[in-house]
Write a structure and sequence with these properties.
Length: 216
């Protein structure tokens, strides 16, 4: 029954559920994840902040997707071509990524542009996209994204067939803003790396349910 309940929750509800589970697991250690996994995740963080608790909760949620739904995890990095006349902001690259993801990548993964049907939506990757920056750069292209894609077994072949370096064409309407991309299979803990700038950029994108920024 619980798994069915999770499947009908939207991404924001799932995020809140994961946060609540993190709180409960602190009170009831026997119901938490494997102790060694939790120790490993916590050891990655120095002094956990509120944002770090969100990161741990999302990592736990991703871990459970692997364990309970047999999903595979991929780490996608995307950088973007700079504007000539100004430095872009987070909202700019969020728009770049949303256009790429919703209008190019999902139709490719699902082999249809009709990505919002119940059946197609159920096998879409559950994806979290975080903003990062090159700290030593003051150029307009310093902002980029790290995305964690939780891939359904039915679409795993597509992702495993992609080359790691620049697997997407750069000359299409919805990919032309991408400068470089890199994708590889990973483990849930990679989410901690991907979200390392969450304190500075607390809004992140979540898919498939709302295609919007998550605020906390």
């Amino acid at each position: 029954m619980e798994n069915l309940y999770l499947k009908i929750m939207n991404t924001e509800q799932l995020r809140q559920y994961a946060i609540k589970e993190q709180e409960l697991s602190t009170e009831y250690p026997n119901e938490s994840l494997i102790h060694s996994e939790r120790l490993k995740w916590n050891s990655y963080l120095f002094k956990p902040t509120h944002s770090d608790l969100i990161r741990l909760s999302l990592t736990e949620y991703v871990y459970n997707l692997v364990k309970d739904q047999n999903r595979s995890i991929f780490h996608l990095t995307t950088t973007y071509k700079p504007y000539k006349d100004r430095i872009y902001a987070q909202r700019d690259i969020d728009q770049f990524f949303t256009n790429f993801y919703v209008k190019y990548l999902l139709p490719e993964v699902l082999n249809t542009k009709n990505i919002h049907t119940v059946i197609k939506k159920s096998i879409q990757p559950i994806t979290f996209t975080f903003t990062d920056e090159h700290l030593q750069s003051f150029d307009s292209d310093r902002l980029h994204h790290h995305s964690i894609l939780c891939v359904d077994p039915k679409t795993l072949d597509f992702f495993q067939s992609l080359s790691e370096e620049n697997p997407f064409p750069s000359n299409l309407e919805h990919t032309k803003k991408i400068c470089t991309s890199h994708i590889r299979e990973c483990d849930p803990m990679t989410l901690l790396y991907s979200s390392k700038m969450l304190d500075r950029y607390p809004d992140f994108l979540s898919f498939p349910d709302k295609f919007h920024r998550v605020h906390h």
